[in-house]
Amino acid sequence: MSKGYRITASTGIHKGDRDYQQDQVNLFSHSRIPGCMLGIVADGMGGRSGGRKASDQVMLTAKQLFERYAPETDDSAFNAQADH
For a Cys-Cys bond, which of 6, 25, 61, 62 suits 11, CB 3.0-4.6 Å? Predict the structure, then answer.
C-alpha cells in the first residue's frame, strides 16, 4: 500500500497596475476520485485584447479533460499509458 500525502494549497493573484486581471489560477478536485487534484495556472496575454477569454478557455478545457481522465492508482499502468 502506498503512503498517503497531505497537501495544503491556496491561490492568489496580484492585480498590479491593470484595471482587470487576465491571469487565473485554480485547484480542481476530481469528481470521481477522492484526493485527486489538478492545479492550473493560465497566464493572460499581457493586457492584450482577448487575454481573459484565452485564460478562461484554458481553465474550461483543463477542467473538462481532467474530469474525463481517470488516473490509475498503479504507477506501472500510468507509465505504460505515457509510453504510447
Answer: 25
Q: Is 42 exposed, middle or buried (0-12, 13-18, 19+ CB in 10 A)?
A: buried
Domain ranges for the chain, please list them: 24-69
Tell me if 23 sits within 8 A of 11, measured CB to CB: no
pLDDT of residue 34: 83
CA distance 63 to 55: 12
**Residue 13 grid coordinates:** 493573484
Contact 59, 26 (CB under 8 A): yes
The stretches in the chain having pLDDT less than 70 are 1-2, 46-47, 71-84
